[in-house]
Structures are given as structure tokens and as C-alpha cells.
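G., before I forget:
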Amino acid sequence: MDITWSNFKKQLPVVCQAIAEADFLAIDGEFSGISDGPSFTTLTNSLDTPEERYEKLKAHSMEFLLFQFGLCTFKYDDVKAKYIIKSFNFYIFPRPFNRNSPDKKFVCQSSSIDFLANQGFDFNKVFRDGIPYLNQEEERLLRDQQEEKRYHTNGASTTCYMYISPDASRAPVVPVIPDDQKDFIDKIVYQRKLIYQTMNWKFPRGTHVETVESPNNERRMIITKVDEDERKNKEIQKKVKEQEDLNNAVGFSRVIQAISSSSKLVVGHNMMLDIMHTIHQFYCQLPNDLEEFKSLTNCVFPRVLDTKLMASTQPFKAIISHTVLAELEKRLQMPPFNPPKVESAEGFPSYDTAVGQLHEAGYDAYITGLCFITMADYLGSFLSPPQTHVSVQSDVISPFFNKLFLMRITDIPYLNLDGPDLLPTRDNVLHVTFPKEWKASDLYQLFSAFGKIQVSWIDDTSAFVTLTQTDQVQIAVNISRFAESYCVQKYAEYVAKKDRQSLSKRKRTDDGWMDFERKRTKTQYNLDQTFSTKKSINSVEEEPRPVSPEESEVLKEDTASPTASDAAESSKRPKTETDQAGIYYVFYFVKLLSRARGGQR
Amino acid sequence: MDITWSNFKKQLPVVCQAIAEADFLAIDGEFSGISDGPSFTTLTNSLDTPEERYEKLKAHSMEFLLFQFGLCTFKYDDVKAKYIIKSFNFYIFPRPFNRNSPDKKFVCQSSSIDFLANQGFDFNKVFRDGIPYLNQEEERLLRDQQEEKRYHTNGASTTCYMYISPDASRAPVVPVIPDDQKDFIDKIVYQRKLIYQTMNWKFPRGTHVETVESPNNERRMIITKVDEDERKNKEIQKKVKEQEDLNNAVGFSRVIQAISSSSKLVVGHNMMLDIMHTIHQFYCQLPNDLEEFKSLTNCVFPRVLDTKLMASTQPFKAIISHTVLAELEKRLQMPPFNPPKVESAEGFPSYDTAVGQLHEAGYDAYITGLCFITMADYLGSFLSPPQTHVSVQSDVISPFFNKLFLMRITDIPYLNLDGPDLLPTRDNVLHVTFPKEWKASDLYQLFSAFGKIQVSWIDDTSAFVTLTQTDQVQIAVNISRFAESYCVQKYAEYVAKKDRQSLSKRKRTDDGWMDFERKRTKTQYNLDQTFSTKKSINSVEEEPRPVSPEESEVLKEDTASPTASDAAESSKRPKTETDQAGIYYVFYFVKLLSRARGGQR
């Protein structure tokens, strides 16, 4: 169901109802762009740390607009033994709601826009009829403005309570009236007083005064004869109207608030950017610190599941070769998987996966939900007794909770929202700095003695070089000591140095940090209130603990080693990162099976 | 006539023909936004110098996209005694044309998008079917790539000639083949050679080899049996195809190139931003220096006329109170003006000014042209004998050539593209610096002894304060010498200090500047070629000369002095600039009349 500004108010209760009754929700966002860097590789280096990846996405992706949000709610019907779905396709646009509203700017990336255009995306629905939104800070500001307005209106004076100035925090200005204008002002003030006096004398039963603004921004004072009851009624009407205006301005953020406070499982596919954009656009500015971001995400989306991560993990990894959403959906329709039975709720149009409407957010959310159900049910087949339907409460899916897929990082498959991230040693990796003039060939030449290498460019003068054998790392470092033009260090040394730098940097900017903290706390007011029973923002362990043996159990990738043609291909594109995956994956399935075999559910 | 990518190639000759036969052209652009600053006032201070205004527009407006370009051509038909018009409405979008094309990003401003949406603007036409474009640098790069490709294809090897890397200027990389892959590569190279040999032996009459790319980016080599003639034909076909690809990629820029090389008079309304965007988007990056910009504009648009400046200048100023395009158009339909007779050319839909389609670029261009004709004809009525039709060659309009209206600058009405700008003394203006905490009221208080003042904010800690009487300036400066919290200097002193600073800054960055110059010269290659007979870029006088008495003849504004209610209003909005115009206008009309009465035409 398409939801635009035209039908938003009418359909909002339907949306909230669907969320409230659902077993789980699937979401998907479409953005006006992905990366403001020179290319997508600006965002991804295969040896990024989770911190670095988060920083890159924050720096290079958040200026774009999330302008279509897909929500598909899934409710299991025990009688029919199938999921009943309700799918919504929201069009979103930061429409200015009045003359004081923030005039937001956002970036568009041609390739993304062109891609969506080719999919038949309706830009007019976004720009002409998109649903507005406010983040929590903006909502608070608007609420404050309304209260201040009410305070002043009820008080003695009706002086200016709102104005636009380069620094909006300044207090209203007391006008200084030049001598030659004093008579004029005095006369006007006198006349105004006279009108009020006459009004009170002529209409002793009372009057109601309100200021209305015409469509062409002219402001008029409307005075109505009323008795006390009518006056009170008018006041109440006014309050209701104000509340409605506020609700209108908050707009789509109310849907996200409903999702958030439902605490339902939220399923997405490769959902890191979806989550970052959603928080950034509808809640608050993203924090600089990754741990902060994790806590914030836990507050906004207490339980998430990423189907791309799920499909890339055993036992699925062994039988699913492509995890791009469309490919995954196709693969999951074939054995050993059983496509689930779903049915659109009454009044909701049903999607036909045979024709598909890929990259419409509502449809993508729907497909994502289907993939999740299929994979969950597949895990159920390993239980004893086997289950054909696995509920979202089942232990077989809980290992996938709160882990976000990390694109193209070879040895850290996911961002762990519930604790510290995996910490691979990367002891076969070198950090190399070199002159700007160097090409990829120079690096291959330099390390030619060590056999096959992988180069991951950081910038024009540095790169990671991954050697095949760990014991050659020390040799490479030793040799480099005689070199003047380049410098080689072990990955661990590089990271340690970088951590020291960022620590001292953070200390230096302490004030700014505390300032941010203070602001954030304020912004999180509603969040904290809503989730006071849940893990508080500061309760996450800050100290990195050693990775448990279970978590660090990794598998070598099962595809054949890259062929020479891959090497030739990568040498043709010297500075794009090599896509070859190296070491792979946390093996949850061991845990899953042992649990499943041991007991109930 | 709407022109999108679907009909662009078919209609381009029609557009070029219309330009070639026209007496003059009217243009208008619609942008995805105006200012990336906190508000529109970021762009305008009523005491900006032309240099400052240009810098502000360049810094805060160029990230937006010119996505609709209106062109209306006007050709006078002597027999019918009316103008025949052809109006075009181009939809423009930086569509990526192949996998190597630049992935452009642009900013959208909610208020601008919302404004256009309310006018019924069709965003789908832009994003789904917009015409692509390249600037001159990009066109040159693409041409070079094609030539390099051709060179390599004709040469011995077919190695990689194009690739994407963080630094595209690097040379192709010689692949270093690891030992364990050498056999594999040797075998492939041998097999390839074998295929070529067999081909030459099997098909002695000759073969044609070409690489084609399928829609899903797979590349295949196609080998066709051909004799010598066929081979040559194929080569020619290929060249034609490449030229076509290039033309397609250059896209809308070809329309601007046609306008430019026609040297026709280009009329716009408040056209500074239109010109800046047009050059920025379709020619080259805007220079940092205003003089450079003027020279560049002279090359791209040798003759321009701004109807907003015309309407704000005598004799029109005295009888036209509003110069906003829609208001101006209405006013010019009433006496003493005679609305001109115009007719749409055959096959072109005619606009109805009664219903209007304001803010569609093609319509706005049309209206702008009408306004120009009406005002020009009005000037003709003062000639002896009076003329009902004034041609674009007439002396009565030449004083308005190459002067761009400067929004909201009270004492410098226009940017003079043909020489130095007006240099008002501003000897009743003070530059004041003060603590961040100061409000407008503090400034009004401080200068309350001097009667009515005007405050133009520069930033949080400085402002211009305009006094009513020049002789009080020295008193204010004298008093300030005893103050510690604020600092007052005369406008002239402030400017002198600023000029010294910018001069030393420019000296420091000399290398960067020369680097830019070098780049610009390269980029301007086509421009310089096209306009070699015109004023060369460096021929503009660099030394500011004193303003001639004729030019500096200014008139006090003829509206009543601002009332006290204005003062109260401006004190309510402390940091927005006061809109009240102070001193006004160069009085061309004196010159006009004296010329007109003196002579022929």
C-alpha cells in the first residue's frame, strides 16, 4: 500500500495496528545516493575495522535522503498455518511545514537516481506528496516554541515570540525607537489599547482573540464575541489544532517511533545503512563513537536481524552462492528450501514475486521477510522433532540477533550490536606507506618475492598488503628497514599507533565531546523514557574482551583460490579493492545444532 | 516545447535553427536549490561588494543542479510586424552515459523543491528522462579516451586503455604475474595468438574484430569475416558510432554551445545565478576571481541584458514599483506600455499569459522576452520620430548590455561585465566588531545618539552600521576609541584592510593560482577558439579606474523614507538585513535621451 502525505493521516492507525499485531517486521529503505566520495570504494576497504567502516558510512552516506521506506508486517495465523502480511511503501520528503521549519538540504547521486529511475521509481510522489518528518531535537524545539507561544498569548503581551535570526538562541529584541518615530509608535500603542478597552466595554460577555495567517503570509487578528464557555472551547480547539500541527510536522517519524516502541524483531537485508539513515533522519545526529551508535541502535531497534548475514553464515553459506536480495530470493525457492505460504491481509494488494517490483522499498521489505521465514524454517528442519514453522522466539534464530552484515570485510562478517566486535589478528597483513607517485605495479614488484599478495588501498600514499604466509611478514618488515622511499609495519603496530593517536585526539577535544554528550542526552529524552526498562546507554561494556573460542572459530573460504585471470583483472584496476574474500565466517551452526539436538525448541 | 532525452536528438536541429534565425534569445533556469547556508541572507548583505557577492554565490549556490533550462527565441517578422517565437523547455539531468562517466552529486533544498512541486513541476521528466551534459573538461577527457582507445586498437596490443582508480592520471599498470600463475597466463596468451593465426589463415580475405558490451556489462569479442572494403567500412561505422556516443554524452551542453557561438543577445531576468550555473554546469569550474568570471562570461555570452536591472532603472523605475517577473509582466500590460504582438511559430504551442505557467523555465523565458520587448519599445517612443518597434541593435538599449542585476545591494545596482564596477564611497557606513553576545538592541542602543541607523549583519561579531548623516561618522569613530568591548572603523578603512589581506593571501597561494590558470586555459580551448576575434580574456583593464561622472550620477531613492513601523518590523527580525533601499541608481536615461534626440535610429 502506497502511503503519501495525502493518505498518511488516514492510514496511520492502520500502520500502527499492523505493527502492534505483527510477529516481526521487515524494513527496507531507498536513498537518494550511497557515497559522496569519488567512488563506492571510498566507503569500503576489505580490511576496515568496524570503527573505520562506521566512520566512513557516517562521513560519506548521511547527506543523502532516505526517501522511500518499506515496511512489511508479518503475523502468523495458526489456523491457516501461514503468515498474513501487510506491506507499506512510504514516500518521504522533508516538506517545510511552516515558515519557521528547518529548510533541509540533501544530496542526490546521479547513478543512484538513474538506477531508481530505470526501476520506474516515482519521484513526483516523493517531491510533491512525500510525508514530512522531524527528528527528536526538532520535535522538542517545535514543542517548546508552541509552549512559549501559549505562555505569551496567555500573558499580558502579545509581543513577538518567534523570529528567525542568524542565532536563534538570542532573546527577542527590545526595540529602540528613534526620536522622530516616537510619536508614531505612541499613537499606535494608544490606539491598540483603545481598541481593547472598547472591545471589553462593548462586549462585556467576553471576546476571543486569535492571529491567523493567510496563504500569502499576511497575518490578521480575528476578534470574536464569545462568553466564558465559548472562550474556553476556543482555547481547547486551539490547543487541539496546535497538537495536530505538531503531529503533522513529526509525520513519518511517528511510524518509526511505533516500530521502535513495539520492540518487535526488525528484519532487513544488508541493513547497516538502513539503520544508520533511519536513526539519523528520524531520531538524532549519529554519534561519533561506534559504541555510542550500538547503544543508540539498541534503544531504537531493540532486536534486529540481517538476512544477508544469515545467508552468508553456515549452514546457508554452503548452499547459497549469491546473497544479493533478488538472487537469494530465487535460490530460496528451490530445494532444500521450502518457500513459505503467505497471504496479503484483506484490503492489501498482494505482490507477485514472479513479476517482481524489486527496489520498491515495500516490495524489498516483503522479499526480505520471505527470505527470513524460509531460512528460519530450514533451521527448524534440523530440530527434533523437526518443525515446519519456526517462531521468532525460537532459539534457532537468536544467534543472528543484533548483528549487522559488514559489506566486503573479509574477516569480520558483522557488526555486533550486543557487545565487542570480533578482533582478527591480521598477522599476515602489512601496512605500507609510499610516495604518491607509486602505482599498484610498484607494490606488486616490491613484494614479488613473497608470492601472491593482495593490495587494499587506503589512500594515495598507503595500503594494506596481505601476504599468503604469516611467517614472511617479519622478513618483509626487516627488508624495509633498509629502504628510504617506503615504510612497512605490521598491522598490529599500525592499529596500536592509530589507537594512541585517536585517544589523544579525543582527549584534546574533550569539551566538544562533552558538549555533544550533553546534547545527545537531551535529544534522547524520549528514547530514554521509552526504554528505561532496557539496557541503559552506558551499560554496554566499554573494555574489549578477548573473543571467545566459539566466536573466533573461523572457516577458510570454501571457494577456489583466485585464478590468474583474477590477478590480471585486479592488476588492470590497480586501486579498486580486490573483491576476493579471504578468511571467512563465524560458525554459529555448531552452537545451533548442539542446542537444538540437546533440548526443547 | 518540452525537450527531454527522448526527443533531444530529433529536436536539436530545430533548436539550433531557432537560435540561428533569432533576433534575440531569452533564457531562464530552474534550480534544485538556491543557498546551502542557514538562510537566503547567507547570500546577500546589502553592503556586499560585487566581489563578495560573487564569492558568496559561488560558495553557496553552485552545488545545486540547474535541472530545467528555458529558451525562447524571438525573431522579428517585418511583414507581420510582430515577433515570431519558439519556446523550449529542456529537462536536464547528469545521467551517467557509460561505466566510466562521472557520477555527479548535487544538492536539493527542500524549500525550492517544495516550491516547484507546488507549481506542478514534473520531477519524473528530470530524473527519468533528463538530457545529460558534460562540461568542456569532461568532454575533452572523453575525447582523449576515445582517441587513446582507437590508437591502442589500431596498434599491436589490445591491453587495457581505460580504468578507474583513485588517481586517474596514473598510467596503466604492467601486471606482475606471480610465479604460480605464469604457466596459466602463458597458455592463454599462446592460445590467443593461435586463434589470430588460425583466423588469418582460414580467412585470408580478412577479418574485423570488435569488442561489444552487453547490457549486463559482459564484454565479448566479435570476429567477422570481411574483405578490405568491408573492413574499412566497419572502421568508419565505428568512428561514426564513437562520435555519436560523444555527442550524446555532451548532450545539452551543445545547446549552450550553440547559444554561445551565435553571439546573439541573451535576455534574462535577475540572471546572475542563471549565468553562473550555466557556465559552471556546461563549461567549466567558476574562477575564484571576479574579473576572471567577467571575462569568461564575455566569452560564453558575449551580450546579455537583465530585464530586472532594466525595470529598476530610469525611466522605468519611476513607473514600475515591483520588478518580480510576474508583477513586472502584469505592469507592462498597462499604460504607458504597449504589450507587444507575438506569435508562436508553426508547430510550437503558444503560451497563454492569462492563465500563465510561471516558474516553468520555458514560460519564464518567454515572459522575460515579452518584458524586454515592451520596455525597449517604450524607449523607442522617446525617439524622434518615435518608433513602435525597437530592434536589438538600437542605441536605446545598448546601455543595458552586459550588466547583471545585483540583488538587494542598495548602492551598486549591477555587476558590470564590461569593466570595473561602481565604487560607492559609503562614507556614512561604519564597520563595527563586538562580542558574540551582543544583540541588535545593543547596536541600536550604542548608536542611539545618531538618530535612525541601519544595521547590516556580516556575522555574529560584526556588522555594518549606516548612519543618516555622513558628518556623524567621525564622531562615532572618536567615541569608540574609549571603548573596550567594541571596535568601530570607517568603511573605507575596513575595505583597505581587507584588500591588503586578500592581496597577501593571493600572493601566498600563487602556485595554486597559476595551476588554476593553466587548467583554465586548457579548458577554455574551445572557447578561445570560438571567440578568438572577440576580446581576449586578459584584455579587460585590471586597474580599477575612477567611476565616470556619468556613471556615478546617482539618485536618491524616490520612495518615502521608511516609516516607524518599518523600524519596529526590522527590530523584530534583528539579524535579517533591512530591505530598505538607500541610495539608488545610475541614470542612463539622461544619456539615452540625449543620444536619441541627437540622431538617427
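The longest strand of chain A covers residues 66-77. Confidence is low (pLDDT under 50) at residues 155-174, 508-601 of chain A.

More on Monday.
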